[in-house]
Write a structure and sequence with these properties.
Length: 347
């Protein structure tokens, strides 16, 4: 451990008592020197014991240096050996790595080949299954063909007389030169027969359609005829009711015409009376008549107003008579004189 206050003085053991920060430099300098330097100790230090201790320390130092050199040589030798071992180990590692890579590639290739072989085995197994199915199907087809061959031979034997008949017809006729021409002719006749049957079926279907259309049209015509009959009956009923209504109205019109003809004279007389009354009232008031004979309503309004005025005058006269006990004739004569002298004015 370094001291708090480093010292530069020598102690009892001389150079072994230096401070730590200077000991390293001095050690390196002493290593570079060949001569032995010894600092004398102070005067109060025992010389003999210190020399013996220095000699002993030198011997120990020499032993230590020898041991260090020996250990250094051993270390260098061991380092060379270790380097060689490391090189060998590196070579071995590289070799093992290469071998591992090769083995790994070999294993991968083996695995790929194994997978490929499994796939090939699976495909071959599927092919075998498919081939077995095809073989079974072919065997079934062969059985069907064998059965067909047997039936064909039996049919050939069955139709052998017909073949003989065809050959005889060819030999006897001069139209057909071979069996093929006869068969073609028969095929054409069969095709014509098939076409004729098809046309027949088509015509039958057309006839059925025409029949259905006729039935539908007759039904529709019946419905329309019944509807028209119903409409016609309704129209006849309405016509009868209309005739009855017309007769009623004709009777009422004739009655009204007769009534109007009978009462026309009365109406004319009434109009003349109204106009004459209107004229007299106007003359009494000293006015000329404003309305003609056609304006009956205005004349009646005028007459109504005049009658109202007369009723008021009569009420006033009756009131005076009751108060003065006058005779009615005197009051009438006096009123007439007043009215003649002072004609009434229209409001």
């Amino acid at each position: 451990m370094p001291r708090i206050k480093p010292t530069t003085k020598l102690g009892v053991y001389g150079q072994y008592d230096l401070n730590p920060q200077q000991a390293v430099n001095l050690y390196i300098e002493s290593k570079l020197q060949n001569e032995y330097y010894k600092k004398k100790p102070s005067w109060d230090v025992a010389r003999l014991g210190l020399d013996l201790m220095g000699i002993q320390s030198n011997r120990e130092y020499q032993q230590v240096t020898k041991e260090q050199s020996r250990m250094r040589k051993d270390c260098q030798k061991k380092s060379r050996i270790n380097e060689k071992r490391l090189q060998e180990a590196n070579k071995l590692v590289e070799m093992l790595l290469n071998n591992f890579v090769e083995v790994n590639d070999f294993l991968k290739s083996c695995e790929a080949k194994e997978n490929e072989s499994y796939a090939i085995m699976e495909s071959e197994r599927n092919k075998q299954i498919n081939f077995n199915k095809k073989i079974e199907k072919i065997e079934d087809d062969l059985q069907i063909l064998r059965h067909f061959i047997g039936n064909f031979e039996s049919t050939v034997k069955q139709f052998q007389p017909f073949e003989d008949v065809l050959e005889e017809t060819i030999q006897s006729s001069s139209v057909y030169g071979s069996v093929e021409e006869l068969m073609k002719r028969c095929d054409s006749l069969l095709l014509v027969q098939v076409e004729i049957s098809e046309i027949e079926q088509q015509k039958i279907q057309d006839i059925e359609l025409i029949r259905e259309n006729l039935l539908k049209s007759t039904k529709n015509a019946l419905h329309t005829i019944t509807g028209l009959n119903n409409d016609l009956s309704n129209l006849q009923i309405r016509y009868v009711h209309a005739c009855e209504e017309c007769l009623k109205w004709e009777q009422s019109i004739t009655s009204t015409k007769n009534y109007m003809a009978l009462n026309e004279m009365k109406t004319n007389c009434m109009l003349d009376v109204i106009f004459h009354l209107y004229d007299t009232i106007c003359k009494r008031r000293g006015e000329s008549p404003k309305f003609s004979m056609e304006h009956v309503e205005q004349q009646l309004d005028f007459i109504k107003e005049e009658v109202g005025l007369m009723q008021e005058v009569m009420s006033v006269a009756n009131a005076k008579l009751t108060q003065g006990d006058m005779s009615l004739l005197a009051t009438k004569s006096s009123n007439k004189e007043k009215y003649a002298a002072y004609p009434t004015q229209r409001k």
